[in-house]
Here is the input.
Amino acid sequence: MIRFILLALITMLAVAQDSVDATKLQADLARAQKTLLDWPNLNRYSAENAKLAPAASGEKRVVFMGDSITDSWGRRGGKFWPDRPYVNRGISGQTTPQMLIRFRPDVIALGAKVVVILAGTNDLAANTGPMTLEQIEANLESMAQLAKANGIKVVMSSVMPVCDYHRPQTARRQPEKIIALNQWIQTYCKKNKLVYLDYYSAMLDDSKMLKKEITEDGLHPNAAGYAIMEPLAEKAIAAALRK
Here is the structure.
């Protein structure tokens, strides 16, 4: 039923644009159907999770949960610790409710000792619909609670700054909301004895924007940006393991 509804909608749109293309139509339908049927994208890592060997005795496995900034780390830019038991479970475009749904298969089930959560920028941009700061905070808190209940140390990262030097970003991700969300994350970590990973302060320029030279689009870090993030993440992970 969903397939027929989607097909009808896409066909109507294509006809309205006088550009019916059967191949493109099928591709659009497949993408829309995938989004509806697997909204949190549980299938993205299902095969990799199945192949991942259980954590060895004494292994300090770290899972990075996040959006495109995490997803791109080591895949499109930077180095993602090839010699460490670190697992990348970022998915481009995701928001905190999507991450919360896949937290069990992509973090807990992998036997993580530490989880590094980097999330919130896409919530502010309303990628999956409008969200209040309180709703974002509740989802972050739920992920932290799930981790703690399963004996996983928690590192909660600040939302990174953005800039308009390359293309407009601040209209969708308002700097004042980023600051407010980061203040809540830092306070929550302090209150609950979690580790706060402050990428934000290290990536600001004198105008309180993301440094122009460490990004190509004003949102995602380039290799130079990941080079700043790497030692900060290492320090935070070490601190979490000591707790």
